[in-house]
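Q: Structure tokens for this one, please.
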Amino acid sequence: MHEEGLAGHQDSEIWQVAQSESRFLLTQDLDFSDLRKFMPGTHAGILLVRLRSPNRRHLTERIAELFQEKGVEEWSRCFVIVTERKLRVLRP
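A: Here is the predicted structure, written as tokens:
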């Protein structure tokens, strides 16, 4: 959302933009982790990244690894949680 000019904006604003444009949201923000609020199938998709060392390099490497090795095109409308070692896809 940095390129969108939304860096530092309220979560509700970021969520509204993602939803209005049917975008898949990649985030480290635990405010987006509540499955009751962000139930699979009710949005375009969320990828919640939880790394022990969440610096930019580790984040970029882990996301690139996912996109190379996993069927991310199947994650539409899903809630996806990823750590260094695990991947959990919650489908609608």
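A few notes: The longest helix spans residues 56-69. The beta strands are 25-27, 46-49, 79-82, 87-90.
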